Structure formats: C-alpha cells, structure tokens
Amino acid sequence: MPSIVERFATLPPEVQALFDNTENGMPFNISKSGCLVLVKLGKEAWNAWREIFPVTGMFPHFTNHADFSGLDFRGDPVDFSGYVFGDGADFRGAQWGFGANFKGASWGRFANFSGAQWGDFANLNGAQWGDAGNFSCARWGAFAGFVAAQWGAGACFYGAEWGKGANFQGTNWATSRTIYLDDEHYQSAKAWAEARGLAPDTFLAISFAGAHFAGEADFSNRKFTGKTDFGCLPEGYSRRRVQRDEAGLAKFDGNCELLWENDPEPRRYVMFDAAPKFHGCELHQDTTFDGARFPPASGSDEAARAYRTLKLAFSKQQAHREEQRFFKLEMKEEAKRAGAAKFMYLLYEKSSDFGFNLWRPLALFAVAWIAFAFTYGYYGISTHDLTICGSLDASCKVQWSWLEFSLAQSLPLTGFDKLHSIATLKNNNVPVLVLALHKVISLACLFLAGLALRNLFRLK
C-alpha cells in the first residue's frame, strides 16, 4: 500500500493546500473545520480526498470521518449532489435552507442526521445510505424528495417530521438513470447498491415510529423487504428536539454531545395528515401501523383508493388486524361521498364498526328486546293475554310474558304463529308494523354479530 506521503501527493493541489493549515487536521484525520473548507471546494475535490483517505476504525470510534455536526448551511449553501461521505458521517443538528441538494450523494454505515433540519424542496433523490442510518427527530420542510433513495438495514426515523409532501417513490435502475450526474456516477451508484443488496425500489428494515407526515407521503412502487414500523415509539423513548441558540444553531455539551429538550408535543404515535400512498408496493410480513393516526375522512376518492391499496396488501399477507384497520378507513371515505346512502354507512359504522365489533349489535339486540317488550305491553300483546293495556298506568303492571313474547319475536322465524292473535286488537296495522320493525332490527343485529364473528376470527 502506498505511504501517506505518496497518497497525499496524488491529491488535487487545492486539497493539499488545505492541510497547510493545522486547524484543518491531517488528510488521514481531518478536523470539523477542515471538512467545511474541503466540502466547499466541490465534489471532485472532496471525492478525490475521500477515495484516497477513507474512513478508518469501527463504530462508534471512527477516524477521518466527515463531521458537519451543528453546522448551518442556510446562509452559505453547498450543493452536496454526488458527494461520497463514507462511514460514520456526522450531521447531527445540522441545518439547510430551501432547495438543499443531496441528489445521488452516498453515505456508508452509521450516518447520523439526528436533529438535523431541512427547508422546503430538499432533494435527496437517488441518495444512498449504508446500514444503521440515524434520522431520529430530523425535520424536513414541504415537498422533500427521496425518489429512488436507498437505505441499508436499520434506518431509523424515530419522531422525524415532514412538511406538506414527502416523496419516497421507488423506481428501477433504468428509470433512475436521469437522477445521477453522468453515466460514471450512475454506474458507480448502481455497483455500490448491488454490493450491499440495495435497489432504488427497495427498503430493508426501516422504522418511522412516532413520525409526522404533515402532507402526502408517497411510498408507491417500493418493496419493503425487512421489518417496517409505522407505529409508536418504543418504550423508554420520548419525543425530543434539539436545543438551539438565538441564531438557530444546535447546542452541544463539552463532550460534543448534542443537547436535547423534551418536545412540547408528547405524541408517541405516527401521524398522517393525508392518506399515505403505497400503490404498487410489496409489504414485509412484519409491517405494522399499530397506533398510527390518520386524518378525518374527507370523501376523497384518492384517499379511499390509498386505504384500499393497503387493505388489499395486508389481505394478501393474512394480516387481519391491519386489513381491518384500512377497510374501516376506506369505508369512512366512502361514507363521506355516498350522497343519499350516507345514512346507511353511518348506521353501519355506529352499529357494528363496519362489521368488526361484536358487542355493539348484541347490545342493540338486547336494548330492542327490552324496549319492544314494553311496546307490546302497551298494546296488550303477550303470550297469555292479548288484552289492551292502553296507557301503562298503575293498573297495567309489567308482566314477564311481555319479555317472553318480545324474545320470541327477536329470534329468527319464531313468533309468527302468534300473528293471528293480532286480529283481536282494536287496530290491526300498528301492531303488525311494530312486529315487523322489531323483527327487522333483531335480524339485522344478529346478522351484524355473525359478520363480526366472521371478520374477527376469519370464519369461512
């Protein structure tokens, strides 16, 4: 292997000159200030140094890794497209303004963006990360782009936030060619990904636990090949945010550890402010949305289709609970735009939670049984005495026979043998209508209870 001096001699002259200043460190052990100076020399200079003097050491003790922790690029933006950062890159608490460009950039393992912030229209299309990328509590503005972006296993977005629009769509390699700067960049990115089992349409194990998508989140055409979490933050982990000074710069303690404070919003669950899109996706069997919150129904056909897509995806996996979750969300969207049939959707929801609640229809059955018992008593209908009890006054006492007769009318195909006795009443029409109404309500309750049993236990 060439010596350090020999390798140093192959660096571009402007990079060699950078290390004349001892504050910038050494080419084999660059300092934080040296990283900032070098990155401003451009992609060619940075990548040349990175190739000749790679990161050494193991997590968490990397040497010669890129360190941009706490830096503010809002006033002096850098185009990071195509940069190669290597393992252990430290961007904790860093921030960028409008249109930050990381298109086609690549990081190795253990890249740390915890507490970082981006403005609107951040472009990370085609960007690549190795295993264990950390984006916990990071924040993006509106319309962040992650099209064809790739992460190794264990990418963590605990408590991360996105503004109005986050595009994680997957593509194939042929389609993603236009993302990269030139053919050499494209071939290099493809080779890097294939060596690690990555692809522009694939996610390995990834967690968005506790994240907030303030606009449309689009994960269409992605293959989720590892454990995927859109649920709640794990026990012992709370939402937090970076402490910043009046200028907005992140604060660090004497050990260069990022300082945090509790987030005023104690929410632990994932929150979608718009129906997420997963069209054309393949979900891993260990995919969860437990505890996730979705927006109130808007009656949008687009939202209904988004939920239907997730319902069908989980149906293929026999993931019944998740399938039920998205079926109910789909039904709520359909109810909003049902027009004249809206009342039927509302009744379906309230009486049985769209066929997934066993106890509501049984409770309604019991209430109808008692209520109609008193109604039959009012009309003098009983199994033993069909005399009229017109006003339920003191002389008209509650009889057990009312309950017997009401129960008989509640059960399917029973009680009809007593219909001939109705003719003895003064008004034939009212009791017949009452009996018919009771029978319809009871049958509907029993049907909904049976439907709930089938849906909850997947009975055939």
Task: Give the topology, please.
Elements: H1 4-9, H2 13-18, E1 25-26, E2 29-30, H3 32-39, H4 43-52, E3 56-58, E4 61-63, E5 128-129, E6 139-140, E7 144-145, E8 150-151, E9 155-156, E10 161-162, E11 166-167, H5 173-176, H6 183-195, E12 202-203, E13 206-207, E14 212-213, E15 217-218, E16 223-224, E17 228-229, E18 240-242, E19 260-262, E20 271-272, E21 287-288, H7 301-316, H8 320-336, H9 342-352, H10 359-379, H11 400-410, H12 429-457
Helix pairs in contact: 7-8, 8-9, 10-11, 10-12
Question: What is this entry, summarized?
Answer:
The protein contains 12 helices and 21 strands.
Task: Give an account of the 3D structure.
By secondary structure, the protein is α/β, with parallel strands linked by helices. The protein folds into three domains: 1-53, no CATH class; 59-295; 359-457, no CATH class. It is 33% helix and 10% strand. It has twelve helices and 21 strands. Strands 6-10-14-20 form a four-stranded parallel sheet, with no helix packed on it. Strands 9-13-17-21 form a four-stranded parallel sheet, with no helix packed on it. β3 (56-58) and β4 form a beta hairpin.
